[in-house]
Amino acid sequence: MGNPMADAFGDEAAGDAIAPMLLHDAAHVWHPYTQHLNAPLPVPIVRAEGSWLYDLHGRPLLDAISSWWVTTHGHCRPEIVEAISEQARQLDQVIFAGFTHEPAAALAAELVSKLPRGLTRVFYSDDGSTAVEVAIKLSLQSFANRGTPRRLVAALENAYHGDTFGAMAAGARGVFTHMYEPLFFEVARLPDPSQGDALAALDALIDARGSELAAVIVEPLLLGAGGMHVWDEDVLRGIRARTQAAGVHLIADEVLTGFGRTGPLFACDRADVRPDLLCMSKGLTGGVLPLGATAATEDIFDAFRSSDRRKTFFHGHSYTANPIACAAALASLQLFDEDSEDDRVRLEVAQATQLATLRGVRGVKAVRQIGTVGAVELDATPGYLSDIGRELAAYALQEGVLIRPLGNVAYCLPPYCTTDDEIASVYAVIHRFLEGARAEALSTGGPIDD
Ligand SMILES: *Cc1c(COP(=O)(O)O)cnc(C)c1O
User: pTM higher than 0.90 for the full model?
Assistant: First the structure.
């Protein structure tokens, strides 16, 4: 076995004092989605710039997953850094019940001007999961407030909406959620539109239980954590038409797809769909600070305006609309205005070019793309399903590329500043892995846990 620290950091670290950060981490930190019995030591990152992360030894690592799908314009963009430091000197935090401030007000106005039409109210929270919780609660309570309670929510197979209870209930059942299933509220399940007829199932559901159905929640056009499944704009329009006719809310969870990932600012824009509620987080601040937001229609907002105080939306987080996070989001939106769509259009072409080189390659089952996101489904035998992704991730890490496959689905979801050459280097690693580096990776690379 030897010294795991030395194994993890190679000869540079062997014998030398291990950085205090790693000792403290090993002794006291509990990491997300990590099996601490056998996970490799975490990679210590000290600096980031553009599409690159730099470890303790100055070794560069290409961030091909936007640091868990958040970074949009690139790491440490000076415009965002400047806005944050200016705001931190001016107003760091203030309670948002009964008080307001310029960054939150300006950001709400700015978002409303850019969101699909009809979304006119912004409720702030902390992250993607809370943005989803808020959307579900707003839908359910708006029906209750109007004296016509509806309690049923419908969601897609293979959906992912976050890790809090309401978000887990809406998400697909699986290894991450089975423990808590007895505690979930009822959710009607519609087929993943990339695999089955979601519209027929929605018709049947509305026929049978339309008067109970409050909302249908979807990740528009891209089921992300469920395996990067791309689905059809016509189906999204069909879901909108059916929910509208049945007086059912459509919740668009754009936590991943928002802020340009699929090309336009929001995936709903690709289909010209206007949801009743839209959830944002991840790229909202450019991927720099945590912030969630749920946009709602004026009709939903109106259901809460009442002289009966019980109809208030009794929900709020300590850091609701944190001024520094809002300032980062404003600076990020400004960059979207200035940078136009050129970078994303260029990335879309680069991804398509690279994905084409993988078509028909041994070991590749399918390739998928929407906008700036490219995915490769590896042809792994069922029993091997999750292992191949971990092997590929470990191999890529040795090669200086950060990817984190979802089971047998590898994907490249880069910051928009990533160059064509950098994209090519990500796919070169996948090619080399498929061509045989995989056997080598098996003997040298440790597993990376989900
Ligand atoms: C990541 C994600 C979430 C959860 O966001 P967190 O900030 O991790 O809580 C919700 N919905 C979708 C579609 C996501 O991709």
Answer: yes
